[in-house]
Amino acid sequence: MGRISAIKNENLRLLGHGILKNDMGRISAIKDENLRLLGRGILKKDTNIIFAISRDK
Q1: Residue 21 placed within a domain
Q2: What are the residues facing 12 on neighbouring strands?
Q3: Residue 44 belongs to some domain of the structure
Q4: DSSP notation for 2-50
Q5: d(C-alpha 19, C-alpha 57), whole Å
Q6: Residues in a beta bridge with 35
Q7: Whether pTM exceeds 0.70
Q8: Mean pLDDT computed over 15-23
Q9: CA trace torsion 29, 23, 8, 45 (10° rounding)
Q10: Banded pLDDT at 44 (limits 50, 70, 90)
């Protein structure tokens, strides 16, 4: 029953249960409940699969 534990990126918004979307529209939808935000622009899944979020510099 994983929830998104922390959102440290100010451009990310929690739209619903396990759904993230940023203001630039780069992240369309993340529906996996096991994703956690470890740091700035990095999501980690409980199965050690790491997703990197590319941000505009």
Answers
A1: yes
A2: 22
A3: yes
A4: --------TTEEEEETTEEEETTS-------TTEEEEETTEEEETTS-E
A5: 24
A6: 45
A7: no
A8: 53
A9: 20
A10: low
Residue 41: other Cβ atoms inside 10 A: 16
Domain assignment of residue 22, given as a range: 12-52
Token pair 């990126």: residue: 9
Tally of structural domains, the chain: 1
Q: Which two tokens stand for residue 39?
A: 């740091």
Structure tokens given for 15: 């739209």
Does the pLDDT of residue 36 top 50, yes or no? yes
Q: Coil, helix or strand for 16? A: strand
Closest CA to 37 of 56, 9, 57: 9
